Amino acid sequence: MTSFASPLTRVVLVFFSFVALTAGTLAVSAQTISDINKANGFHESLMSIRPNIANATKSIPMPLSKKFEEAWSDAVQGSFDADKMEAAIESRMAGNLTEKDLSDLASFYASPLGKRVTALEIQASTPEERKRKKIDGPKILAELQTKDPARLELYRKIMEDLSSVDMGEAIALNVAYAMTAGMLGAAGKPLKDEQIMGLVKQQAAKLRETIEKNVMEGSAYTYRDLPLDELRLYSAFLLSPAGSRYYDQMLAAMAVVMGDEARSFGHRFFVALGYRKA
Known about the structure:
This protein is mainly α. It has helices spanning 2-22, 33-39, 42-55, 66-77, 82-93, 99-110, 112-124, 127-147, 149-161, 164-186, 193-201, 204-222, 228-238, 241-273.
């Protein structure tokens, strides 16, 4: 375990920086779950997961062996397929929202404000903008303390009302558990559930800190040009029955589906390292 624990910890933190940045930024313009997810840029977000995982090892400040890097690359190619994850998420969400929920979601995002918010969120999810977000997000957030404290407090309120950090942490721990279990299983060294969770929870405080930081920085960057009054209206919509149910259902489905993919990734990674034949 000691040979990969530190790299794994850093990879999980990097991975969930991405998850935190996407949490809560969902937009819709149609009246089925599938159409909603296609209209809101969610598919594009899922497509970003694989390259983010592939590049996660670059954050590890220690030399990695060629074998490690090749095994990581091989494992990534077999996991986190966007189409597969999207289908699984939609299957889990099917029937969990009422027709009124879907109608309310569609009505909001067909409005001028809904379209504006959607455009900002999709723009912020592009590879170029994600790079800028990592650089400019912290700067913008720091400036809000003196330049626009009302906006800062609204970002914080949205994060707290939607339990963004709690949900992000739950997803992170679930995926970290699955990834660790997959690796240990492939290595022929399975541990009891409580032992694996004990290893994962050692990183819980750091994960939570990273998630909160990235949710706030991501919001500060994504909505930087949205007038405060419009941000308040968007906040009210996210907390509406339709908005909150969609958000809750999406994250719950993501937690399970991404956990499954992480377990597969962990298994593939250790098989590629030669710990066990596939």
